Amino acid sequence: MKASNIGVFIVLVLVLGCHNAQVSVAVTCNILALAPCLDAINNGTTPSDSCCSNLKEQQSCLCQFAKDPNYSKYITSPNAIKLAKACGVPVPEC
Predict the structure, then answer these.
(1) What is the pLDDT of residue 63?
(2) How far apart are CA 50 and CA 45, in angstroms?
(3) Which residues have C-beta within 8 Å of that of residue 89, sequence separation ≥ 6?
(4) CA of 72: how far to CAs of 8, 19, 25, 46, 84, in Å?
(5) According to the per-residue pLDDT averaged within each range, which of 4-8, 50-54, 70-74 is highest?
(6) What residue segments make up the domains of the chain, in order of their start?
(7) 3-state class (DSSP) for residue 2
(8) Residue 5: which pLDDT band, with cuts at 50, 70 and 90?
(9) DSSP of 20-51, one letter per residue?
(10) What's this model's pTM, rounded to 2 decimal places?
(11) What's the pLDDT score for residue 19?
(12) Distance in angstroms (rounded) separating the CA atoms of residues 63 and 75
C-alpha cells in the first residue's frame, strides 16, 4: 500500500476515536499502529480484530492525529465512520 493510503487510514481511525475519548493509562500516540485498518478505511471492508484493538488503544490520540493537516481531511470519511462504529469506538468530535 502507498504511504498516503496509510496516512488516510490512520487519520480516519483517529478522528473516529476522538469522540468521548478517555485516558486511563499513558498511551504512546502512534498513527502507524492503525495500519491494520487501512483496508477498512480505503475500501470499506470489515475491520480486523487487530484493527479494532489498535483503534481502541489509540482512541485518546485521535483528536491529536486529526489536527495534523495531512490527515484532517479524512475525518469525515464515510468509511472511517463505518470503521469506528464497527469497532465500537465513538465517532470523535474534536
Answers:
(1) 87
(2) 14
(3) 16, 17, 19, 52, 55, 56, 59
(4) 9, 15, 25, 23, 16
(5) 50-54
(6) 3-87
(7) coil
(8) low
(9) T---SS-----GGGGGGGHHHHHH-PPPPHHH
(10) 0.69
(11) 47
(12) 10
Residue 85, all three cell numbers: 462504529
What is d(CA 67, CA 41) in angstroms, rounded to the nearest whole number? 18
CATH architecture assigned to 3-87? Orthogonal Bundle (1.10)
3-class SS of residue 81:
helix
Per-residue model confidence (pLDDT) at position 2? 64
Q: Tell me the pLDDT tens digit for each residue of 9-60.
A: 555 444 455 544 444 557 899 989 999 999 998 899 999 999 999 999 999 9
> What type of residue sits at position 74?
Y
Q: Is 20 left (phi over 0), alpha (psi -120 to 50) or beta?
A: left
